[in-house]
Design a protein that fits this description.
The protein is α/β, with parallel strands linked by helices. The protein has helices at 20-26, 45-54, 64-70, 90-99, 117-127, 141-149, 179-189, 290-294, 297-309, 319-334, and strands at 11-16, 35-41, 59-61, 75-78, 103-107, 131-134, 158-165, 194-200, 205-211, 216-221, 233-238, 241-246, 250-255, 276-278, 341-342. Helix 4 runs parallel beside helix 5 and helix 7 packs across helix 10. The longest helix is centred in the C-terminal third of the chain and has 16 residues, at 319-334.
Length: 343
């Protein structure tokens, strides 16, 4: 795993936003990606200057317009809070950066509706530059491992899944967190073809039955108050085995075996059919930043930088996936219970 200084070539980037989320979860990841932090901008000057010094930015600006006007960069990373209505503020800022000739990385959710994707698309086409949204579950090591496992011959063909996620349905902007579990399903199975759903009005719990090209399954949103405490859990069922991911950390894989009946005197079964388990060891000296990796942010930012340095567009979190994910979000917001909805 190369560290920032070990890369021969690094992407020259500016950064917009010096809030707590940036400080805790995004900026520390730059130590592990081929990214050179050239300049940082934030409307809070005292905070912004402190964060810029801490993470080694060469220059600070009080707003993004000044940064865009004065810096010569390869890309811009944008991590800013929502507006007063809870809507992401990325479309306008990202479009300005793309028009200025920069590639752009934004945190998820990318916008409030699929209609906002047009702003990104127009700017990308005009500037011939790329945008990527940080759908971090596409890069979380536990889910990357799960995706690798379901391609193995001993797993067979993925035919079903169940994903539990702590979220309550709401018509307000808080439901934009739906993009996190759904982006994981897109990463694993591609674009969904359609869905039907049932809601629990008192709690906001929701079960969504989704059909993908080869797999069908359910996305269970736990509703309140479980949304505060329940862990996310993924199970994937194949024709020859199954995979489970607990809390986006522990991965379990088991083959079904030959199909022969188990020995009644050995109910635990033979060792050859025992499940295999992977889980992180955060006590190891080399894994003190394990949370940054397990969240998926390190992999996400590294993918963005490495793809651009190769002259290639991002494979994940790109405009096509952004449009599909936000289209699914819009349709789930307005879907009638029990009706089949095509995406």
């Amino acid at each position: 795993m190369p560290l920032n200084y070990a890369y021969e070539k690094r992407l020259q980037v500016g950064y917009i936003g010096a809030g707590e989320h940036s400080y805790r979860h995004i900026l520390p990841c730059l130590r592990y990606a081929p990214i050179e932090l050239v300049a940082l901008a934030d409307h809070n000057t005292d905070r912004g200057l402190a964060v810029a010094r801490h993470f080694g930015a060469r220059r600070f600006y009080p707003n993004h317009k000044a940064l865009l006007a004065k810096e010569k960069l390869d890309a811009l990373l944008i991590v800013v809070g929502p507006d007063a209505q809870g809507r992401p503020r990325y479309p306008e800022i990202a479009a300005e950066a793309l028009t200025a000739g920069l590639h752009v990385w934004i945190d998820a959710p990318p916008c409030a509706s699929a209609s906002d994707i047009r702003t990104y698309t127009d700017a990308c086409l005009r500037s011939r530059h790329y945008i990527m949204t940080g759908f971090r579950r596409m890069f979380a090591p536990a889910y990357v491992k799960a995706k690798e496992l379901i391609t193995r011959p001993e797993f067979g063909k993925a035919v079903g899944f169940s994903l539990r996620y702590p979220l309550a349905f709401s018509k307000d902007a808080s439901f934009l967190r739906f993009v996190h579990p759904y982006s994981l399903l897109v990463y694993l199975f591609g674009e969904a073809q359609g869905f039907t759903l049932l809601r629990s009005e008192p709690t906001g719990a929701m079960t969504i039955l989704l059909r993908f090209r080869e797999a069908v399954g359910n996305l269970v949103l736990t509703g309140a108050p479980a949304a505060r405490d329940a862990w996310e859990r993924l199970e994937i069922f194949g024709t020859a085995g199954w995979v489970a991911v607990e809390g986006a950390a522990q991965v379990i894989f088991q083959s079904y075996g030959s199909g022969a009946p188990r020995d009644r005197e050995d109910p635990l079964g033979p060792e050859a059919l025992a499940p295999r388990v992977w889980q992180p060891d955060f006590t190891a000296e080399g894994h003190l930043d394990g949370g940054l990796f397990m969240s998926g942010y390190v992999g996400c930012l590294r993918h963005f930088a490495e793809q651009l340095l190769r002259g290639e567009p991002p494979r994940y979190g790109n405009l096509i996936e952004m449009l599909h994910i936000m289209t699914a979000y819009d349709k789930i917001l307005t879907a009638q219970e029990g009706a089949w909805v095509t995406i």
